[in-house]
Amino acid sequence: MESNTQIIERNLIAQRQDEDDDEIDLLKLWQTIWRRKWSILTLVFVVTLVAILAVLAITPIYRAAATLMIEEKAAKVVSIEQVYGLEGAGSEYLQTQFELLKSRSLAERVVRQLNLTAHPEFDPRQQPEPLIDIKGLLANFDFKNVVPATLPGDLDDPQAASEAEIFDEVTKAFMERISVEPQGKSQLVKVQVDMADARMAALAANALANGFIEGQLEATMEMSMTATNWMNSRLGELRSKLKDAEDRLQAFREAENLVDVDGVATISAAELSLTGDRMIDARRQRAEAESQYRQVQAMGKSNWERLASIPAVLGHPLIQQFKGDEAKARAKVEELSRRYGKLHPAMQAARSDLNAASASLRSQVEQVVAGIERNYQLAVANESSLQASFNANKSQIQDISRKEFKLRELQREVDANRALYDTFMTRLKETAATADLQSANARVVDQAVMPTEPVKPKKALIVAIAALLAGFVGVGLTLLLDALNNTFKSTEQVEGRLNIPVLGILPLMKTVERKDLARMFTRNQDKSFSESIRTIRTGVVLSGIDHPHKVMVITSSIPGEGKSTVSANLAFALGQMEKVLLIDADLRRPTLAKSFDFPVGTPGLANLIAGTAKLDECLRSVDGIDLLSAGTVPPNPLELLSSPRFAKVIEVMKNKYDRIIIDSPPTQAVSDAVVLSTFANSLIYVVKSDSTAIPLVEKGVGQLLQNNAPVKGVVLNQVDIKKAQKYGYSYGGYYDYYGYSDAKTA
Q: 3.90.800.10, 3.40.50.300, 3.90.226.10, 3.40.718.10: which CATH number matches 485-745?
């Protein structure tokens, strides 16, 4: 299990790497560019030289310019803008004039006037032969035995081209040389022509300006004549239309006997309004009478007493009077009945009066009810009569309105035709009066003069841009190559990415045989290499001064990084001070026996673990240290290294030696290094400079740290010192310790 300190340390490393990935190290970028400064400057110099040669070969182009003033309104005697179409419209009008200056018709006029079809700059028949005839070269190849025939008039063959085709191509080429440049917010405009012939450029610019003015005059005269002819023919049509409209208006008036439609319509409208008011009153009266009538019908005519209780009947004055008489007679009968009997004369007289009063009341009720019925019938008849009168008036008004609309329609037609006829008559007189007026809306302010300085190519600018782009490309390629070269090239880079100290570097030995590398330290053939090994030895000893690293494992990411060389030379360096054992634990690809010329079949570690050989038979002494080679290559190396017998071998060796150095297989090839790290007090990781990919190293170190391997330092191997000095890499004072300068002198 990992300790808390190791977990925290690994998290801090990962966090720092994430922060480094998110931030752009400007100093690092500058250092990368500075290391390649001479390459960049060489590229800039070459590109600049090529650009200078290229611009010197370009034909200079001259620009001649004539200045025109384009007025928005042409001079005129009377207002005939609609005829000429010259009324100004601000920027849109000026933009239209600019496009006319670049029109094909004007270009054709100038081409004919200056005979540009015969000018060497435009005539395809006078074009110089190209330095490289691409078409001729392609003709030598047989593309499926098909040779395209030259069509008549093909401009690729100037001799076969017709005059019309040549004129068309010259016109197109000349139009591409024309440019129009407005002068700020003024009405001035420059007409510019770019040509290699300065004199012809000035003539062409003046011809364009004068041709534009002449074209405007010709267009004005043509429009004037066209307008006059069209208006004459149009005027006859308008006269006929006006006559027909007036005849239709008069015929309608006579047919309808119309004199004053407005007066008749006003009277009819007043009558209709009055009838409507009366109809409203009649409708209200009919509703009241109908209400009373419905009450009478609901009570029934047979029961007069119930009819007398209806409000319309009860409210009648006579009914109220007769009701009072009846009440008095009834009161008298009741009073006499208490004093007399039924046969008493006074009682009979009183009853006779009561019957007479009741009969009178009944008769009056029946009369009032009959009056209610008559009132209802009269109200209905009155309403119907007024409704019929209202409908008749409305129909009359509608008829008058239809006639009025028709009359107004005919009158509008007459007025419109008369107005149009008068307008055309006025415009025709104006056109006739100004037919001989020749005025243009433009005039030449400055004639074009022959230019003395070419406008292009801008040689200094082209060269400067080419040099600048070359610098950008050089910097970009430098950064790209540096980004693609994802390897360790300096000690600072190793310590910054892995957070593990660098114990030392070993210079690249280009001229030394591979089998001699293992004894470089003992033979002292290269002082810088020997000093490098001593520096690594010092780092190993000082890192374990309190707790000596008795068992050391040396490994790398992939094969070929020089871990076996580092193991052997470090063992010899430590052997000068301690009793050292060097073990070749790379049972798959052993190198120790080959490096020291051991006889074939020499027993080693595999034999010792398997029990087929004794320790004394396996050990070999070379230059003051003991060597334990791999021995016979077994079919199961990982099982042997994981066995208790290997652990027992390591324990026995600890008692006999001060330092045990184990040459381990690479971490990314097999997992032997992880197993061996469990027996070690320290582990040294070898990285080949400018070769091994950084992700591989990070992955290998990460696997070891995850398994609690005691990774104590890194050795940066096979460093090309001269190349490092050339690109400005610094190794923090290692040159002095390694004696590199002395080695060069020697």
A: 3.40.50.300
